[in-house]
Amino acid sequence: MFELDLRSRAPVYEQLVEKIKELIIYNVLKPDQQLPAVRVLAGELTINPNTIQKAYRELEHRGYIYSVPGKGSFVKPAVPGNNTARLRALEDELAKIVSEMLYLGVTPQEIITRIKMQLPEDEGGKRDD
C-alpha cells in the first residue's frame, strides 16, 4: 500500500504522512476506514513503530484522521465549512504555484485550462473546454 524512499532526504514520517494524505484525498482510503495498526504497518515497512505513530499524530493534527482509544486510527470524513485554516494554507500554496507558472511563461488562460483539467467532470470541470 505504501512505498517509501529510504534514500530520500525527506524524513520517513513525512513521506508516510504525504502518502496517506494522498490516499485519503484520492478516495482510496474511505471515510471512517481503519488505517493499518502501527505495529502491523511498521512490520510491513520495516521501520520503527514510533515513526508510524508520529505520522499518525501529524495526520490527526492536520485533521485527516482520528483515533479511537483501543481501536486504532480511522480516516476522518470531510466536514464542509470546518476547514478555514487549511483552505487558507492551500490558497497560499496555490498562489505560489500560479505565480511560478506565470513566471515560467504560462498564460493565465492556460493556467485556468490546466486547473479545469484537474477537476472531476461531475464537479463542473470538463476536460475538453
Secondary structure blueprint with pairings:
Blueprint: H1 12-25, H2 38-45, H3 49-62, E1 65-68, E2 72-75, H4 84-103, H5 108-118
Antiparallel strand pairs: 1-2
Helix pairs in contact: 1-3, 2-3
Give a concise summary:
The longest helix is centred in the C-terminal third of the chain and has 20 residues, at 84-103. Helix content is 52%, strand content 6%.
Shape category: globular
Q: What's the Cα radius of gyration?
A: 18 Å
CATH hierarchy: architecture of the largest domain: Orthogonal Bundle
What are the low-pLDDT stretches, counting only 5+ consecutive residues below 50?
A: 124-129
Alpha carbon gap, first and last residue: 35 Å
Q: Write down the oligomeric state.
A: single chain
- The portion of residues assigned to helices is 40-55%
Q: What is the beta-strand fraction?
A: 5-15%
State the name of the first-level CATH class of the largest domain.
Answer: Mainly Alpha
Query: How many discrete domains?
Result: 2
Instruction: Give the neighbour order of strands across the main sheet.
Output: 1-2
Arithmetic mean pLDDT: 87
Class inferred from helices and paired strands: mainly alpha
Q: Figure out the total of helices.
A: 5
Task: Describe this protein's structure.
The chain contains five helices and two strands; from the N terminus they run αααββαα. It has two domains: 12-75, Arc Repressor Mutant, subunit A (Orthogonal Bundle); 84-123, no CATH class. The model is unreliable at 124-129 (pLDDT under 50). It is mainly alpha-helical and 129 residues long.
